[in-house]
Design brief:
Shape: globular
Strand order of the largest sheet: 9-14-13-12-10-11
Strand content: 15-25%
Distance between the termini: 56 Å
Helix content: 25-40%
Number of strands: 25
Bound molecules: beta-D-glucopyranose
Length: 759
């Protein structure tokens, strides 16, 4: 890599400005005179969408493996597998001459209505952060970059390029930024893509606090920030806000505006130089990885199948699965012949091949006879004939398998979902088939939860197969026939109905703003605290075997926050087939100054076990596992006290609990100020000491001043309650007479003692 400092010195102002805006839809500006190559980026996230003509935004890319989308990836809870996925994606980038893959997406699933939820991992920031970090580390280990997106709070498609997400600081830190923070700190993505939306009134593309203060300074992000495609509104303001590269290009007027701003003194050239340095660093880093060659299509297809089968979640099973030797099988639903394996929008991959679910089933069905009926039409019309045909084949079969895909008009990038329902025809189809066939299995292809109360009780089994990638058809067959024992668990709650969801009354906002009124309480954090029943909880998924949890132990009963803790637990496969269990560790703070969720995921592990086998699983919990973000201190804090460490098979299936005692090592500054109440003074250890003499005097004074002079007035509970809520300075006004100075000055003197600015 050349010396960037020297290089920047040699660059003209025009060259620097040009480098900070794309040269085409997918490339940066090449500066031949100085040997600066171009950088080529491509979507992302679950496959490489390498558009052959870099001047075209067009949807169709060169053939590449379409892996399952993020909903399915997260449901694997398998960081090693996601790392492998990343490596495979990097191999395809290399073969397709791509320097940076535009992914992964680490936004939270605030509501299941979010149109792009299929591209995002989870409703939980810990899980999403771990997934994103593994993805990035996998890709970048092969010398290909990533773009962690969409930073930040990109949680809806309604008014997606203009809406302002109104979020309080604590919620931002603990929920909406936390996965990004983990990914940046653990994996250092080469680039971060800013979101289209505004955050608390400022476009993310111009958000200095977000892009500079937090991302670059506090978290130590070393790469460059790229705009989402078309997210820049004012180029100079965005540079000042920390946005290094505007995409797509070319945008000659933008380049000119930067040149003019420097020349007129409106933009400090050092700001431009920093953006240039960040971009150049990645451009040269990328150039070190030789491109070209081929990738192993068959191996990647096999990996896509493996990932899909690990991510699919068995939601219900009355014992019908795995299929045994049923001879007559009714296969119903268009999705059995036309696999629904990805979502619409910028992530749309041109697959190298696509498994046909029906044919894959046939391969494993040994001599069984498979009958097919379409079940529902491609469009949104209602067709009774298709239902009648399906019923006919279902009633004479031993089992009916209904393959249902949520149509594109109900779920895609570009718009939010209208509801959580399957189509009217799909619901009627399930009901009609179940009426004649008790052994009905529903297989779902969708990127986010659907509600099921209209039919779930009547079906024998449900398999959530997600947007399953190009090899998903084979993965479904693997699970239905028990070639793979399902182990996927939900990375998001399936609610009973839309009205139950946390953001229901605050979504999607309008007229330019959406208020995140539910605060910290999204996903299971909300259902937990409200004690609400759900259809399927976060972390839930069935297996063909069963697991016993025992011997939960903790490394220390009492520990210092900075030392953290390790827990271990024995998991035994108590069933008859091999299987994998996803073990989840949640932390519950028994007492805290500010409200906290009932429990939060802070660790997990996936363990594979033969029948009868036991393995010990260990999970480390660090400072952050016990901390929360306190807005008044402006930092992550721990509070001494007792915490429950809860280990379980899902967020609502806790199998063992240990209580531990944390000793906080933090020395926090006092939050007392001129407006603090007497209660705040009494609760502050230093404050209490400092005001003790004054309060003694104050009380004595009050008691002495009995109105009629008969009996000293007692300060009863009611009076005390009243006093405690008053600001100290206002309270002192009642007894100004005995004070050496005006109340405000007295309080200022006390504050100086508390904050250590005086003796
Ligand atoms: C999407 C990004 C994508 C970019 C380039 C935007 O519309 O929001 O996720 O990477 O287009 O296709």
């Amino acid at each position: 890599m050349p010396s960037l400092e020297n290089l920047i010195q040699k660059m003209t102002l025009a060259e620097k400005a040009a480098l900070c805006t794309g040269a085409s839809a997918w490339t940066t500006t090449r500066i031949e005179r100085l040997g600066i190559p171009e950088l080529l980026v491509s979507d992302g996230p679950h496959g490489v969408r390498r558009v052959a003509d870099v001047d075209s935004m067009g949807n169709q890319g060169l053939p590449a493996t379409c892996f399952p989308t993020a909903s399915c990836l997260a449901a694997t809870w398998d960081t090693a597998l996601i790392d492998r996925l990343g490596k495979a994606l990097a191999e395809e980038c290399i073969a397709l001459n791509v320097d940076v893959l535009l992914g992964p997406g680490a936004n939270m699933k605030r509501t299941p209505l979010g149109g792009r939820n299929f591209e995002y991992f989870s409703e939980d920031p810990y899980l999403a952060g771990e997934m994103a970090a593994s993805f990035i580390n996998g890709v970048q280990s092969k010398g290909v970059g990533t773009s962690l997106k969409h930073f930040a709070a990109n949680n809806q498609e309604t008014e997606r390029m203009s809406i302002s997400a109104e979020i309080d600081e604590r919620t931002l830190r603990e929920i909406y930024l936390a996965a990004f923070e983990t990914a940046v700190k653990k994996a250092q993505p080469w680039t971060v893509m800013c979101a289209y939306n505004k955050l608390n009134g400022t476009y993310c593309s111009e958000h200095h606090q977000l892009l500079v203060d937090l991302l670059k300074k506090e978290w130590g992000f070393e790469g460059f920030v790229v705009s989402d495609w078309g997210a820049v509104h004012e180029r100079v303001a965005s540079l000042q806000g920390g946005l290094d590269l505007e995409m797509p290009g070319p945008r000659q007027s933008r380049v000119q505006s930067v040149i003019a701003a420097v020349q007129t003194g409106h933009l400090d050239e050092s700001v431009l130089d920093e953006a240039v340095a960040r971009i150049l660093k990645i451009v040269f880093q990328a150039a070190e990885t030789p491109k070209g060659g081929e990738f192993d299509q068959a191996a990647h297809h096999a990996l896509a199948r493996r990932i899909a089968s690990e991510g699919m979640v068995l939601l219900k099973n009355n014992g019908i699965l795995p299929l045994k030797d049923q001879q007559q099988i009714a296969v119903i639903g268009r999705a059995a012949q036309a696999a629904h394996f990805q979502g619409g929008g910028s992530s749309h991959i041109n697959p190298t091949q696509v498994d046909n679910p029906f044919e894959e089933l046939q391969k494993l069905a040994r001599g069984a006879e498979l009958h097919f009926a379409e079940g529902y039409p491609a469009d949104d019309t209602f067709n009774q004939e298709l239902i009648d045909e399906a019923v006919k084949i279902a009633q004479s079969a031993a089992v009916a398998l209904i393959y249902l895909a949520l149509p594109g008009y109900k779920e895609s990038e570009g718009y939010d979902r209208p509801d959580l329902d399957l189509t009217q025809q799909q619901i009627a189809l399930i009901q009609a088939v179940c009426a004649v066939q008790p052994n009905t299995v529903v297989i779902l292809n969708n990127g986010a939860p659907v509600v099921m109360s209209a039919w779930i009780d009547n079906v024998a089994a449900v398999l959530e197969a997600w947007m399953m990638g190009q090899a998903g058809g084979g993965a479904i067959a693997d699970i239905l026939y028990g070639k793979v024992n399902p182990s996927g668990k939900l990375a998001e709650t399936f609610p009973l109905k839309l009205e139950d969801t946390p953001a229901f009354i605050n979504f999607p906002g309008g007229h330019g703003s959406v208020r995140y009124g539910e605060g910290l309480f999204i996903g299971y954090r909300y259902y937990d605290i409200k004690q609400m029943p759900v259809l399927f909880p976060f972390g839930y998924g069935l297996s063909y075997t069963s697991f016993l949890y025992s011997n939960l132990s903790v490394s220390h009963q009492t520990f210092r926050d900075v030392d953290g803790l390790t827990i271990s637990v024995d998991i035994t496969n108590t069933g008859k087939v091999a299987g994998s269990e996803i073990v989840q560790c949640y932390v519950h703070d028994q007492q805290s100054s500010l409200i906290r969720p009932d429990k939060e995921l802070k660790g997990f592990a996936k363990v594979s076990l033969q029948p009868g086998e036991t393995k010990t699983v260990s999970i480390s919990l660090d400072f952050r596992a016990f901390a929360y973000f306190h807005p008044a201190y402006g930092q992550w804090i721990t509070e001494s006290g007792q915490f429950d460490v809860m280990v379980g098979a899902s967020s609502t299936d806790i199998r063992c609990v240990e209580t531990v005692t944390l000793e906080s090592t933090l020395e926090l500054p006092s939050l007392l100020d001129r407006d603090s109440t007497l209660r705040a003074w009494m609760e502050d250890p230093r404050g209490q000491q400092v005001i003790a003499p004054l309060m003694q005097q104050f009380v004595a004074q009050m008691q002495a001043q009995s109105a009629d002079g008969e009996k000293a007035q007692e300060i009863d509970q009611e009076m005390m309650g009243y006093m405690l809520e008053m600001q100290l300075k206002d309270l002192l006004h009642f007894q100004e007479g005995f004070l050496p100075a005006p109340p405000e000055a007295v309080v200022d003197g006390l504050l100086a003692q508390v904050h250590g600015t005086t003796e």
